[in-house]
User: What shape does this take?
Amino acid sequence: MKINKKKIDLLLAERMLTIAELADLIGVSRQMIYYVEKKSSVQPKTAGKIAAALGVPVLDIIEMEE
Assistant: This one.
């Protein structure tokens, strides 16, 4: 799945969270979050964890393929 880095960054800003805090919430390293944002690709389970930690549906953080 491809995630949208801008959407993630906006959600982090809205919730006043850092990358480190997000990583702690989902139980991964900061480096993993940076890697996910850089590559914009994640496993469905990871996308689900990120979305749940941010309190949004997965559809809100992924890029829809046309």
Observations:
- The mean pLDDT is 91.
- DSSP finds four helices and no strands in the chain.
